[in-house]
Every structure is written in C-alpha cells, then in structure tokens.
Amino acid sequence: MNIETYQERIGCPLLRERVTSAAQAAELIRDGMTVGMSGFTRAGDVKMVPAALAERARREPLKITLLTGASLGNDTDRLLTEAGALARRMPFQVDPVLRAAINRGEVMYIDQHLSETVEVLRAGHMKPVDIAVIEAVCILESGAIVPTTSVGNSASFAILADKVIVEINLAQSRALEGLHDIWIPKKRPMREPIPLMSAEGRVGTLAIDIPPEKIAAIVITDQPDSTSAILPSDAETAAIAGHLVRFFENEIEAGRLTRSLLPLQAGIGTIANAVMAGFCDSPFEHLTMYSEVLQDSTFDLFDAGKLDFASGSSITLSPQKSAQVFGDFGRYKERLVLRPQEVSNHPEVIRRLGIIAINTALEADIYGNVNSTHVAGTHMMNGIGGSGDFARNAYLSIFATKSTAKDGRVSSIVPMVPHVDHTEHDVDIIVTEQGLADLRALAPRERAEAIIANCVAAPYQDMLRAYVREAQERGGHTPHVLEKAFAWHERYRRTGSMLENES
Amino acid sequence: MNIETYQERIGCPLLRERVTSAAQAAELIRDGMTVGMSGFTRAGDVKMVPAALAERARREPLKITLLTGASLGNDTDRLLTEAGALARRMPFQVDPVLRAAINRGEVMYIDQHLSETVEVLRAGHMKPVDIAVIEAVCILESGAIVPTTSVGNSASFAILADKVIVEINLAQSRALEGLHDIWIPKKRPMREPIPLMSAEGRVGTLAIDIPPEKIAAIVITDQPDSTSAILPSDAETAAIAGHLVRFFENEIEAGRLTRSLLPLQAGIGTIANAVMAGFCDSPFEHLTMYSEVLQDSTFDLFDAGKLDFASGSSITLSPQKSAQVFGDFGRYKERLVLRPQEVSNHPEVIRRLGIIAINTALEADIYGNVNSTHVAGTHMMNGIGGSGDFARNAYLSIFATKSTAKDGRVSSIVPMVPHVDHTEHDVDIIVTEQGLADLRALAPRERAEAIIANCVAAPYQDMLRAYVREAQERGGHTPHVLEKAFAWHERYRRTGSMLENES
C-alpha cells in the first residue's frame, strides 16, 4: 500500500496519527455496544473493521446491535452472523446466512422504513449509537468525512455516536468528492422544512461535519464495493416495462403528465431495474430520478439521453457497469447527487415532488394489498426497505411482479396476502407480464375485478374468480372467506404447488 | 327567518341575488356528477341541499359520486342512500344505513387516508369535482367563503369545482370568523414546503378565496350541526388513560420528553376522547394539540388549564359541551385554529412537529398490526380516516382499545388481524385497560411477548401463548400457523364467541 496516497487523503494533520490496523480499531467496539456502520445496497460499506470484529467474536464473547443504511456487501452480515456477533440488526439486510438466523429467531431483526431509523435514534426510542464506522473517500482539513458510493445513515451515525472509526478506501475514486449533499434535520420541536424543491436541488454540505476529536481511529483499505447481482432483462420483465410505457403514454395523452413524467423512484432488484431500462426505448425525455439506489438502468438512461438528473442515496452497479461508470465518472458526476437516506426517502420531499414510485411485490392480493417481505407470511426475505416511504407518499405508487414463481406453481396474486407491507391505500397500479391493473379511485370489489382480469396467469384466474364469488355471497366491503383465505399458501406448503390438481 | 340577518352575511352585493331555495340549488346537481360537500366528523356539513337532492332522487334517476371531508351529520348519508342517490362515496362515513349498503356492494366506497383525497383530485387520478356545496358563516365582500365548524376538504372542493353552492348557516355564530387558516399547496411539480412550524402557526388566509362568479347559488339555513354521540368515560377507558399518563411520566423521567410533551393528536371517538380527558388530572402542562377533530376533551383540557393551543380541521362536541363552548366562544377562539384536512393531516407537518398520535384499534394482532376498519376482515365499519396519516409519521404512534368486546366473547388482541390498516412498522405502543406494551425497537417475536404479557384479557392470554408456541415451532421472523391464524374469527362466526369452550 502506498503510504503517500493515503496520507493525501487525510487533510486534517492531527488525524494522521490515528491511522491504525483494522484489528486495533475493532478493539474500540465492545460487547453489548450499538454500532452504526456505513453501507447501503452493498455500496460504501466498511470492509475491514467488521471482518476484524467477526474474527475477534470467534475468540471472545462479543454481541452487538448493528445498524446500517441498508444491505452490506463483502459478506459482512454472513461473517458477523457466523461468528455469533449479531444480537440485533436493523434496518435492512439481504444475506442468506443472516436471513436464516433471523428466521430461526436467533438474531432480533427490526425491519424498518428506511427513512425512519435515524429518526428513532434521534428521538431516543432505542439505545444510542456508541460507535460509528464509516467508509470515506477522504477526510477534509476540518475533519469532515467525505463518504463514498453511499450516504445512507452514515452522517447521522457519525453525528450521534460517541466515537467514529473511519475506513479510508483507496479503491474509491477521489472523483466522488463533491457528489454528496449532506442535510440533517434538527431535533424536534425545532425542526424546519427540508428546503429541497427538486430532484437536482442541493441544500446541504459536501461532507459529514463532526468534531475531528471524535474520530478515534482510521483504517486504510483498497477493497472495492461488492457489485450487484442483478439478473438481465427477460421476456417477462420486458413485458412489464412495455405495459408501463403504454400506461404512461396514455397518461400523457390524457394531459395528466408531460413527456418528462415526474421524478422516478425504482426499488432495488432485477424487476425494477428492467422496468427502468425499458424506458430507454420510450417516447419519454428529460426524465429525472429521485430514488434511493441508483442501479445500472440509471446509467443506461443517461447514456440513452433520456435522463437529465438522478438523486439517490447510493450507487450499486454490476461489474461491467461499475467499470464503465467509475472509469469515466466525470461524464456523469454533474448529473448526480447522493443524499442521506432520511432525505432521499423523506415523506415530506416525496409528497412534495410527486414521485412515480416503482417497487417490487413478493405477492399481492385481489384487493391490492402487497407483501414485500415475508415468504408464506412468516419467513423474512430481505426487508421493507424504502418501498413504504415511497409508496405511501408517491404521486403514483406502482408495484411490479411476475405473475407466477416456481415455474408456475406459485401465483404472485393470491386471495389474501399473509403479510401486509403496503395496504391497498398505498397501491395505485399492479403490473405483471400479463398486464396492468389501474386501481386509482376504485373500491375493493372493483379492484379485485381489475387485478384478476389484468394481472393473473391463466390457471389462477378461474380459481380467484371462484374465491371472489364465494366471498361476495358472504358480503362485506372487502369480501373474504377467512377459512379459505390462505388455502393456496397452505396447499403450497403441503404439495409444493398452489394449483388445485397438483397434489 | 330574518331577511336582514342573512343579507348581512353576504358581503358581496352581486351575490345577494343568488339566494335561492335548496330545491332550486339542488337542480344544479345532475345525474352522474361528482359532488364535493363540506363536512368533517358531522361538523360544518351542508344541511339543506343534500336533503333536497335526496328528495329529488326519490322521483327521478339521480346517482352521484359524493366526496366530503369526513363523516356527515343530519342523516345526510342515510337520506341519500335510502333515495338510491349514491353511486360512489369517499373518503369516510359513519352512517349505519350507508355502511350496510357499502357492505352489500351497492355503494362503491373508497376509504382513503384523509390527507390524500384532494391530492388525488388535483392529480386527476379520478373524475373532477363538478360542483361543490359548502357551508359558510358568511361570504366576504371579495366573494371569499368563511367556513363554519370544519374546513375539511371544503377549500379545495370550492377551488377545483366548476360551480359552488354555498349554504349560509345562521345557526353558526359569526364569532367563527377568524378561526380558519386556509393554505392550499400548489400543483406539482411547483409544490413548495408548507411553512407551518408549530401547532399554533398561521400560514394561510381567513377565508376560501374563489372567483365570486363561481358561486352559482346561495341557500340560507339555521339548522345546527349534529352533535357527537360520544360515550362517557368508564373504568376501562380511565385505566387506559392511567397507563398512558404513567408511560409519559416515565418518558419525562428518562429525559425524552418535557412536561409539555409534543403536540397531541387524538382520533375520533369515545376511547381517544377519554384518554385525552384523562390528561386533565396529570402532571403535564402547556400541552398543545395538532389533531384533526377537536372533541369535548380539548375543551376540558383548556378548562383544566392544561392546554395552550389546539389545531384541528373540525370541532365536534356533545350537546352540553357545544352549548358551553359556542355560548362563550371568545374564551377559546384565540387558542384555536381550523385548517384544511390536507394540512392538519399532512405527512410533512406531522413528521416535522413530532406528533404524539393516539388512535383507536378495532383489533390488533400479536405482532402489532392494527385493523381499524373491517369487522371480521370483511365488513366496513367507518373507514381509516386520518389514523394512517398520523400513525405513519408520528413521533410516537399509540393505538388504544379495550382488550375485549361483546362481553368478553371477542378478544381485541388476536393471532393475526384479517385486515391490516396499520402495519407493525407504524405502531409503537398498544394500550388496553390491562396495560401498555411498549414496542419501540422490538423485533416481532419480542413484540408478541410484550403484547401478550401486557394487553390481553386473562382467558385469551393462554390461547395466544399456545398459538405462539406452535407458530415458533414452524419458525420464521414473524411466526404464524396460517391455517389457524383466523380460527378465532371463524369460531366467533360459528359460535358467537372467540373462546374455545363456549361452543
């Protein structure tokens, strides 16, 4: 490692003597502590200290409460879980090993709306953050920390913690400096409006301002971010994108939107990414994004000349896209900003700007309630993430899913979802490869009709119609046959298929 | 009726010739129209035109879409339902006859977050309002309309409609003039921050500014508002209030709140009213309210010297309290403001001010999901109202309910709610007469433990523990036994009791 290089990245001379090994820095973290780490959708997470911490936890009793922005890369959640170091974890995760521990009840997982974690901390509704561990491009002369490919909750963790460990990552380009806009709300009741009035607005500082004496240790690394594991578009995701493009064309035709639509948000993952990429071949222009994670599709849209500006809280790319974008970052930088997730996901800003929110459903029911998180209503997949922040406050809340899973043995549209993340009030559009159901201003019985007619794969359509008929005979605003509401899930559990004749 | 009196209430001379009968005014409303009427929790609703409309609908084909602020008084919903005049109804209702028609699927009811109705209209997500019918104290010289005991959606209905009918109500005191603060957001993407920074702030105008030529008819009435049907406190509501007072004393002790707490919101109805009245005998002082409906308890708190200021969207009182308050309104007026429900319930303001939200649950489940609306998951009671606007964005979201209903044959805490209005993410505290479960920063399995230990009536506690044991054997982050999740509701349907030995 080039000593010159990392010293240039510590602008505050006092702090240069705080450089130490990851193992030494990790010693600052003690059993029972609450630790706030940088990292949002694998981007900008700390790499060295958590690995050293996991190493230590294999030798001595050490259990922490771990808070992050969202998901981590570099197998951090796996390493900490396997070392038995996680007592509690929030607000989001995607790791299979951690997921299994959560579902066994071994790690207490608090799945949160991503805009709310630091609000809960600031209000004292949970134990305070003892120590923050933040990845940085560099530290400025003032001691201010320049984050890397995500902001997430890093700024508030650093502000609220007693001590801060900084990981300076030489693999993160200095070109990232200037990308961030750090704005932190005051404690209530002194809170003021967020002055942000457009996706491209800048209202904060370029770095995280904290007293330099709080920086207790600095660790140097050159380990790159984990890349995203997004799948390529397929016929079904292309069909979903096509339905949405046609829907928006109609909205423009009706005079409700212009060709630049309104600022777009897209959830994490393959489907939302494919939908956004589908806009490359669309009549829309001068688009903007006000989202949380900027994925490959954001840069596809830039390259297609469709997108004017993108605001997010992190940048998470596939290996190829990552090489392209960070290899020529100057080409994009002026059209990008990364914000704290409290701002990127803030109800106030989302409602003000009028976001078009596109998120992914695990399953939806005939009335439009959405399950984003719990397989069979019980087993956590990842977490609600920011979908609730956006869906509740959006101009238009869209949920996309393929109509079936498991080679058709599971329908993504069911009589009743066994776990509700988004109630029918927060779901305007459901779209599958089959078609699009426009649920705006419809009553529940009408919503059921629209969803069944447009979104459901053939073998399940008749089954749902039969359910609705029986339910309506019993009556009610939202008719159900409670003792049969979960029969499909129960059948899948017993036979491996929701279909009636497969057992 | 005194001709002098009503003419004094029409400041714009041009408009005096628009005074007509209710029947004549109602002729402006035609079959198929969308009509926006004033009225929020029975307060400030129009009385004459809807009755004339119902009368007409008995003689000729006439079906409308009716939008209001919230519930209406004066049997308007019953009269219109019985006359077959309601095709569609939103966003809230409480009438037994309308409720039955909704549950038979005869009236299409769109149950909405109360902050969102005019947002949906403004965005063009539903058919526009053809005509607004608004109760007024008076019309100013400019043609601006001074609303009465509620603002609700009146201002936006009047602004968005092609024509406006005004009902001037001589039974509403002119002392109400000056009470209102009308602030309307701009259409997106030109939307600006709501400049409101405290419950007592004033940011708008005193009346609803519209071009006077839009006022197509004026009807005069002297029919008073319907009063509230709130029940008196009983031992159980007093116990609920007691648990909450002790909880807040502990929060003050812990340094998280001061004796003036944070602005309070209380939902509609007996339990929330009783909880607020319970604060009259508390150590708290200089309280403020930022709520939607101001009920008897608001004025009890004023009279007890506990409350400094109350912001709402309507005032709905019992007959006795109404006589006292409106008989001496000057005593309270400077400490009150009524706002559009879009502002009183706005996520932006609720999150900024840090509201303590106290709402009523129909039932809650062991993980803290709340059903506020659907009896047995199917039959609409009233509607979600503003509870979601507040619960999602509150500093602290509290749901109160008695632990049982129907003489103990129904438990208000169940394994799984068959309809979710508020997900576990939006529920911090559940309180019954049994006790209070503090769910902050708890994982689902911990939430279940806290709720069962604190909130559940004796016979149901063991039943829930048995359910949890069986569910945990199956595993999962949020353990359930899907085929038994609604067994209690099913048993009640069959036997009239959720208890196991009653059949």
TrEMBL record, chains A, B:
Residues that hold CoA according to the record: 382, 386, 406
GO molecular function terms noted in the UniProt entry: acetate CoA-transferase activity; acetyl-CoA hydrolase activity
Keyword entries, A-Z:
Hydrolase, Transferase
Name the InterPro entries for this protein.
Answer: AcetylCoA_hyd_C, AcetylCoA_hyd_C_sf, ActCoA_hydro, ActCoA_hydro_N, NagB/RpiA_transferase-like, Succinate_CoA_transferase
Stretches assigned to the Acetyl-CoA hydrolase/transferase N-terminal domain: 18-219
Pfam families, per this entry? AcetylCoA_hyd_C, AcetylCoA_hydro
Active-site residues annotated for this sequence = 292 (5-glutamyl coenzyme a thioester intermediate)
Protein family membership: Belongs to the acetyl-CoA hydrolase/transferase family.
What is the protein's given name? Answer: Acetyl-CoA hydrolase/transferase family protein
Organism from which the protein derives: Massilia litorea
Its taxonomic path starts at:
Bacteria, Pseudomonadati, Pseudomonadota, Betaproteobacteria, Burkholderiales
